[in-house]
């Protein structure tokens, strides 16, 4: 973990934590751990190349939140709502709104999804959200997933097989805003 604190403005604090994710299960586990801290009104912005693990991380969030339906790549669906299911003790937490902003043309198309109306009552996760979804809330978790390129060719004459599963991912988690000021992400994720 590397920690850094510092305000982007008077009302904004941010802490940055980096993590190695050796496999899909650890990506899912990161989502599950973070979801233990998430509550209604929280926004998570996921950034990373195709196949970086954004949906996998969201699956971990959905599992801990205990929501209805399978969290999947919303191929033709831009936003999918997963309502909360009752837990064993009869309580239920917030639902999950899972957005894929990949095909969104800009802020007006994001606005058209009317995420504002569900934001306060759910956890909202936006894949491909960087540069767009920040407009939704001053407080948010921004998570970047980086996937290293495939191993160098052993024989330059032979084309490398690109294995979508291969390669440790690096996660960079930035907590932005007063909401996260009292949360020690470094301790949570260590
Ligand atoms: N840390 C990891 N190490 C190796 N493989 C991983 C890791 N995390 C996820 N994967 C695998 O990578 C593949 C792509 O993951 P996923 O669909 O979550 O990516 P994505 O970022 O949502 O992609 P897209 O940009 O298409 O939405 C899946 O097969 C998943 O199991
Ligand atoms: Mg995805």
UniProtKB/TrEMBL annotation:
The UniProt record lists the keyword Iron-sulfur: no
Highest rank taxon of the organism: Bacteria
Localization (cell): Cytoplasm
Keyword Chloroplast listed: no
Principal location: cytoplasm
Keywords: ATP-binding, Cytoplasm, Magnesium, Metal-binding, Nucleotide-binding, tRNA processing
One Pfam assignment: TsaE
NCBIfam families according to UniProt: T6A_YjeE
Function (record text): Required for the formation of a threonylcarbamoyl group on adenosine at position 37 (t(6)A37) in tRNAs that read codons beginning with adenine. Is involved in the transfer of the threonylcarbamoyl moiety of threonylcarbamoyl-AMP (TC-AMP) to the N6 group of A37, together with TsaD and TsaB. TsaE seems to play an indirect role in the t(6)A biosynthesis pathway, possibly in regulating the core enzymatic function of TsaD.
Family from the record: Belongs to the TsaE family.
PANTHER family tied to this protein: TRNA THREONYLCARBAMOYLADENOSINE BIOSYNTHESIS PROTEIN TSAE (PTHR33540:SF2)
Protein name in UniProt: tRNA threonylcarbamoyladenosine biosynthesis protein TsaE
Species this chain originates from: Promicromonospora iranensis
């Amino acid at each position: 973990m590397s920690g850094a604190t510092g305000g982007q403005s008077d009302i904004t604090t941010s802490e940055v934590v980096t993590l190695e994710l050796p496999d899909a299960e650890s990506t899912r586990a990161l989502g599950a751990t973070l979801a233990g801290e998430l509550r209604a009104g929280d926004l998570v912005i996921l950034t990373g190349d195709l196949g970086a693990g954004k949906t996998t991380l969201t699956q971990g969030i959905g599992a801990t939140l205990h929501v209805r339906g399978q969290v999947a790549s919303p191929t033709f669906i831009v936003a999918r709502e997963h309502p909360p299911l009752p837990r064993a003790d009869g309580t239920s937490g917030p639902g999950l709104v899972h957005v894929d902003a990949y095909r969104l043309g800009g802020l007006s198309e994001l606005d058209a999804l009317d995420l504002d109306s569900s934001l306060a009552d759910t956890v909202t996760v936006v894949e491909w959200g960087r540069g767009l979804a920040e407009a939704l809330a001053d407080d948010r978790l921004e998570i970047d997933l980086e996937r290293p390129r495939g191993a160098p060719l052993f024989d330059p004459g032979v084309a490398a097989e690109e294995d979508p599963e291969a390669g440790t991912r690096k996660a960079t988690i930035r907590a932005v805003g007063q909401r996260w000021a009292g949360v020690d992400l470094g301790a949570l994720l260590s």
